Amino acid sequence: MKLSQAVRPITYLKTHAAQLIRHVAEQRQPYVITQNGEARAVLQDIESYEETQESLAMLKLLAVGSQHAAEGQSKPLSQAAKDIRARTASRQ
């Protein structure tokens, strides 16, 4: 289903909540909920929401890594591996 076909007013949500939730959970397709003709919320299944949150977290990590590399706060993998081995050896 296209997102443009999955737009419902809040009054529809109020009267068909169980049906919409069942459809969202089964089809994994979100609904845009409108209020006074404007998009106000998205009804989404929990698995898709969790996947989105995990993807955003990964993108944030990549952005931080890229920023650190651009600022010269990185080191070659071989040096990082040596540093880890040295820390591990000193704990034993």
Structure report:
The protein is built from 3 helices and 3 strands. It folds into 2 domains: 1-44, YefM-like fold; 46-92, no CATH class. With 92 residues, the protein is of the alpha+beta class. The model has no long low-confidence stretch (mean pLDDT 92). Strands 1-2-3 form a 3-stranded mixed β-sheet, covered by helices on one side.
Structural class: alpha+beta
- Total helices: the number is 3
Query: How are the strands of the largest sheet arranged?
Result: 1-2-3
Q: Can you tell me the residue ranges where pLDDT is under 50 for at least 5 consecutive residues?
A: none
How many E-type strands? 3
- SSE run: EHEEHH
How many structural domains? 2
Write the SSE topology.
Elements: E1 7-9, H1 10-27, E2 31-35, E3 38-43, H2 46-70, H3 77-91
Parallel strand pairs: 1-2
Antiparallel strand pairs: 2-3
Provide a brief overview of the structure.
Helix content is 63%, strand content 15%. The protein has 92 residues and is of the alpha+beta class. It has a three-stranded mixed β-sheet, with helices on one face.
